[in-house]
Amino acid sequence: MIKLSFVVIVMMSLYNSILIFRNPGLVRGTEYKLLGDELSHFRRMGLSSYVFFSSLPFIVPSLVFRYKNMMGKDTFSALLSFVSIVIVMLCSYFAVIVAPFLLGLVLLFLALVGRRRFRANLSIIFMVLVIVVLIPNSVKANLLYDIAASVPNRDLSYKMNEIGQTLEYGFDLVTYDDEASTSIEGRASRIRYNLRDFLLSPIIGTGKESNGHIYWLNLLAQFGIIGIIPLIMMIILQTKRMTGAILPETKFTYALTIMSFVMLGFMKAVAGYSMFLIPFFVVPGALFLYNRQ
Predict the structure, then answer these.
(1) What mean pLDDT do residues 259-266 have?
(2) Is 137 among the domain residues?
(3) What is the CA radius of gyration of the chain?
(4) What gap in Å lies between CA 178 and CA 189, rounded to an integer?
(5) d(CA 50, CA 166)
(6) Global pTM?
(7) Is residue 252 part of a domain?
(8) How far apart are CA 226 and CA 22, in angstroms?
(9) In which domain, by residue range, is 272 found?
(10) What is the dihedral of CA 39, 41, 42, 47, to 10 degrees?
C-alpha cells in the first residue's frame, strides 16, 4: 500500500503537469477565471485540488533518500526515483502555488546535501546567510527583478517581483487583506489580525476562524492555548515514537518531512486529509519499509 501510494502521487503529479501545461491557469484563481461548468469539467478530467499541490513538498525528502540509497545498487530504481523527483517538482512549479514550490526547492537542496554534509558545512551555510543579510536590499531586489523577468511562470515571476519591491521599499502593516497593495502586505495583515484575535481570548480562543492561510496562528486564535496543545502534543509524540523506531540513516529524511509540514503551516492553510496523510502516514510507512530491507 505504501509503494502504491508513492506511485499514485507521482502519477497524479505527472497527469496534472500535463493537464496544467496544456491549459495554463487552471490552478490558482481557477474559481475566478472559469465558470462553474468549466471548472467541473476539469475536475472530472482529474484536476487535483489546491490541497494536493500544497502537500507535494512533504514527499520530496523521501524520494531523494530513495534515489541516493539506490545509486550504485539498482540503477533502474535510482532512475525511477530521479524521474519521480523531477515530475513532483515540475507539478509543483506548474501549479503556481508559490510557497509550497519554494519550500520544495529548499527541501530538495537539504535532502541532496544530506545530514553529514549539512553538519560539516553548517558554518559555511551560516556564513553565506550572514553575507546575504549584509548585502544591501537594493542589490538583492535587483537580483529578484532579474529572476522575475527570466521566469516564464507568471505567478512565480509576480511573486519574485513583489518580494524585490518589499526588500527595496518595505511594506505597510495594514489591518486587513483588502487594504494591502501587495500580497506581502496581505500576508503580514493576516498575522496581525490572527494575533489580535488570539489576544482577545488567549485561553479558549474566539471560536471563529480568523484566517486559515496562517494555519498555526489561526488555530491559536480560534481555539486558544487549550485547543492547540493537543495537536502539538500529538505531533511531538508521533515524531518521538517515529524517531526511536526508524534507522539512524532515515532520521534526517523524517526530520525534513516534519519540518516541512510545520513550516508550511506558518505560510499557508493546512487543510484536507492529504496534507496530513503524506507526512504522518505515507512517508513514515516508507521509512518503516526501509527498516525491513
Answers:
(1) 89
(2) no
(3) 20
(4) 10
(5) 26
(6) 0.81
(7) yes
(8) 48
(9) 1-117+246-293
(10) 100
pLDDT digits (tens, 9 = 90+) for 180-235: 666 677 777 778 778 888 888 889 888 877 666 788 888 888 899 998 999 899 99
Q: 8 and 71: one domain? A: yes
Amino acid identity, position 79:
L
Are 254 and 222 members of one domain?
A: no
Length of the chain: 293
CA-CA distance, 263 to 103, in Å (whole number)?
8
Does residue 271 come out as left (phi exceeding 0), alpha (psi in the -120 to 50 range) or beta? beta
CA 251, 252, 253, 259 torsion-angle sign: positive
Q: Could you give phi then psi for residue 268, rounded to 5 degrees? A: -140, 175
Quote the CA–CA distance of 209 and 222 in Å, as a whole number. 6
- Identify whether residues 186 and 287 lie together within a single domain: no
Helix (H, G, I), strand (E, B) or coil at 210: coil
Q: Is there a single domain that holds both residue 111 and residue 250?
A: yes
Encoded amino acid at 93, one letter: Y
Owner of C-alpha cell 556564513 = 127
Residue 94's CB: how many other CB atoms inside 10 A? Answer: 21
